[in-house]
Amino acid sequence: MSIGVPEESVRAGSGDGERRRAGFEVRRRADGARKSRYIDCCCGDGAVVRYAREVVRRRFGGVGLDAILLVRRARRQEAHMLDEDAISGGIALCTLQCWSGNGLMMQDAARHRRPPTFIQQTPKRACHLGPPLPPGQPSSSLSPPAVRTGSRAMPKLERLFQRIGSEELCSEEFARKEDERDALRDLRSEFVIPTKGDLGNKRYGPARTNRTDVSNEQTASDDSEESIYLCGNSLGLQPRRTRDYINKYLDTWASKGVFGHFKELEDGHAPWLHIDDAVKGPTAKIVGALPSEVVIMETLTANLHLLMASFYRPTKDRYKIIIEGKAFPSDHYAALSQLAHHDLPPSALITIDPPSPSSPYLSNEHILSTISQHAASTALVLLPGIQFYSGQFLDIELITHHCHLLGITVGWDLAHAVGNVPLKLHDWNVDFAAWCNYKYMNGGPGVIGGLFVHERHGKVRPTALPQDSEAVHINGASSGTSSNSTSTSTNPEPHYRPRLSGWWGSDKRSRFRMENVFVPIPGASGFQLSNPSALDMTAVQASLDVFELTSMDALRAKSLRITAYLEERLLRWSDTDGDADANAGGVPKPPYTLITPPNPAERGAQISVLLHHDMLDFVLEFIEARGVVVDERKPDVLRVAPAPLYNSFGDVHRFVGIFQEACRRALEKGTGKGEGRIEE
Ligand SMILES: Cc1ncc(COP(=O)(O)O)c(C=O)c1O
Ligand SMILES: Nc1ccccc1C(=O)C[C@H](N)C(=O)O
């Protein structure tokens, strides 16, 4: 076997009936399976296994491949089950994924003991990966398969509250008990929750609302009551400490002037000169990076451009950019304008489109096959970690790996993912990523953003001597495109990835010497341009300090629970006491559908609700008059996001009550008769 370690055959643990039927055999390394956490998992026997091994050996030389798992993708359930088994055993997997045209590849292989034809299947087209190679044939004749490393990122998770009867689930008592058992409930007090009155009036500070609701009835009973704020996916709430931190910043500026840049103050924050370093550690934890791989700077769209200036380097053969069809407009414009900047036509922008307008879900198969289809001419893939509209959490690890196998650089817009779902940007080998700090990060409207550059792209090497032939190519970038193109022993400039530069990206020790020699700080900091707004940095620091009170894992645990609760409550529409299944048995269906993936592993905190047509305006007005804050995406979608840092189960309970009442009133008024539409 290519991994070249002693092995012993073992049978799978739980759930191996299906494996046995499919001819699965699981092998573990004998040299301490627990310690090494490696597994070799092959399907079928004889020819199939030999073929798979041969493909892997030729293509990857066995290097870094610890396991092979042939997954029958046409039956997703089974693929999930297999991966989950492996995860529960704490096992790292590499996956060679193959699809069969008819979904029967594994069984055929097991029964007939013959090598299958590997087909990568998509809803639209199938592309052959080709038949098994005869020995000795060069591997370049194979199209690369999708390969996953590391543990499965997207297991199929259960619907947590499915079995609880509606009477119990929909009671106030249930929400209260959930809040009592919520280990993070005290974090809510770290935030300023606007009152209903605050939201309604036009002045600063609290005041009673004079607003009337759409049906001219009594509005919210008590203006001093906390609003139901489920809009952290757009603008997060203000941490209480933000005001204190900003006051300190103002005091420092008022009392120290320019010395505030340099002076260590008692009980103060980091001198402004070092404020970028002070926020690295906590940021790195949130996105799963090394501190040197992240920097807080500029804003999201600006950062995407800066990163593309470095990572999108089109050539005659490879010049396309692939984005998703429903990309956030700013990303779309950014990608298009990058093409124009390089004198390339708009047709070089390839979009991964949802299968149908009413179903925004992008399956891995669809994403990977679109990328594969354009691989030969693609330079860059730019995708969202979480899709802003549907709330779908993309499989960053899988897609990144797929792109890398095809020689494509891939960047991620993490606007809706950062602070929302656990990320492992370093381990997932992500090339670059950018995000904003005003959504789940709670840094304040339009506050400074952040970016990630993988360690391998941020290296800065000392000037090479001319005879050092390796040094003329750094991280795949030709020295001819870098500012330091003429490398000689007298040239003081180091080698680094080309970029658009500014003085704040240059080494702190020489930054103020004004010598006009750019010496990039290794890592992401070397991508900085200007001195950052200390006011913005202070706000981000306050929000990061709230995150420091917990961990992304703890937040995710709560998020999974509270979002599942929201989903389950929305699915129980019936006025009567039936449970969720009763809806299928003739009880009226709700006048809305949920377009966010039902698998909790494939979403963050947001549930997008597609209302029947023409209901949105009425529903929104009705719920806003009662102190609910969610956001709308015309024509028919409401996005509802319980942020685990500050939202309670009580919030969700109150929201669903008001929202469903609004829907009933809308139906009574005669709206909501047609199916809803999502953005065209
Ligand atoms: C996915 C996504 N990308 C880009 C942006 C634009 O961000 P900014 O205005 O901070 O550049 C946003 C939000 O506004 C967003 O949600
Ligand atoms: N920054 C804003 C300013 C005003 C209104 C909305 C935003 C948003 O951020 C929208 C968000 N990106 C979205 O997913 O819709």
Q: What's the pLDDT, averaged over the residues?
A: 76
| Radius of gyration from CA coordinates | 27 Å
CATH H-level superfamily title of the largest domain: Aspartate Aminotransferase, domain 1
Low-confidence stretches: 1-52, 59-152, 208-220, 464-490, 576-583
CATH class of the largest domain: Alpha Beta
End-to-end CA span: 51 Å
Q: In the CATH classification, which architecture of the largest domain applies?
A: Alpha-Beta Complex
Ligand list: pyridoxal-5'-phosphate, (2S)-2-amino-4-(2-aminophenyl)-4-oxobutanoic acid
What's the β-strand tally? 27
Which percent range describes the beta-strand content?
A: 5-15%
Helix/strand/pairing category: alpha/beta
Largest beta-sheet details:
7 strands, mixed
Q: Which strand order spans the largest sheet, edge to edge or round the barrel?
A: 12-18-17-16-15-13-14
Structural domains: how many: 5
Helix content: 25-40%
Quick take:
It contains 20 helices and 27 strands. With 680 residues, the chain is of the alpha/beta class.
Your description of this structure?
The protein has 680 residues and is α/β, with parallel strands linked by helices. The protein has 5 domains: 7-148, no CATH class; 166-226 and 557-668, Aspartate Aminotransferase, domain 1; 240-273, no CATH class; 300-435, Type I PLP-dependent aspartate aminotransferase-like (Major domain) (Aspartate Aminotransferase, domain 2, 3-Layer(aba) Sandwich), CATH 3.40.640.10; 460-527, no CATH class. Helix content is 30%, strand content 14%. The chain contains 20 helices and 27 strands. The strands form 9 sheets. It has a 7-stranded mixed beta sheet, sandwiched between helices. The protein has a 4-stranded antiparallel beta sheet with strand order 23-24-27-26, with helices on one face. The chain has a 3-stranded antiparallel beta sheet with strand order 1-2-3, with no helix packed on it. Helix 12 (300-311) packs parallel to helix 13. The radius of gyration is 27 Å and the shape is globular. Bound molecules: pyridoxal-5'-phosphate and (2S)-2-amino-4-(2-aminophenyl)-4-oxobutanoic acid (KYN). (2S)-2-amino-4-(2-aminophenyl)-4-oxobutanoic acid binds next to loops.
